[in-house]
Amino acid sequence: MPAPTLYRKRIIPEECVLLKDDKLLYQDEDMLITGWHTLKPRKDLHHGYSCYFLKNGYKVSKFYREDDSLLYWYCDIVEYDFQAETNTYIVTDLLADVIIYPDGFVKVVDIDELVTALNQKLISEETLKKSLLSLSSLLNCIYSGNFDKLQAPIEQVLRS
């Protein structure tokens, strides 16, 4: 199966970027796993791996510093649009994110952007609900001690 084309679409700021340098490491009907380097150089974040959970509404990424030390796990709430005729995924960031630090501290961020996007009519009420339900599902997984199940696909690919 040829590697799909991946786009990252943002609502705030509005952009759609081809992830041309991302390397597909694994693919099945439920997930995609990629390895990547930052699109724009940053002092803290250098590279990482992302697991796109295609049926769950989130993407779980392992972020690394340049020295290969773990920065944190970053979870995006997303929706996926697959265009079969071109084997293309457009992954839209639905704004809310969860950061899990190496010490286990969990931080939910960008909830305010959901309100801004709704007020500016950048998203529908239905999209807002979808984002919040996916966020709730992700947080339930984390708080019940099952985040390791979402980390496992990336860790397995890194071991192989």
Brief summary of the model shown:
It is built from three helices and nine strands; from the N terminus they run E-E-E-E-E-E-E-E-E-H-H-H. By secondary structure, the protein is α+β, with helices and mostly antiparallel strands. Strands 1, 2, 3, 4, 5, 6, 7, 8 and 9 form a nine-stranded mixed sheet that branches.
Description:
The protein has 160 residues and is α+β, with helices and mostly antiparallel strands. 26% of the residues lie in helices and 42% in strands. It has 3 helices and 9 strands. Strands 1, 2, 3, 4, 5, 6, 7, 8 and 9 form a 9-stranded mixed beta sheet that branches. β5 (47-53) and β6 (58-64) form a beta hairpin. The chain is globular.
Quaternary structure: single chain
Helix segment count?
Answer: 3
Gross morphology: globular
Assign a percent range to the helix content: 25-40%
Task: For the record, give the distance between the C-alpha atoms at the N and C termini, rounded to a whole number.
Answer: 20 Å
CA gyration radius, whole angstroms: 15 Å
Summarize the helix and strand pattern as letters. Answer: EEEEEEEEEHHH
Residue-averaged pLDDT: 95
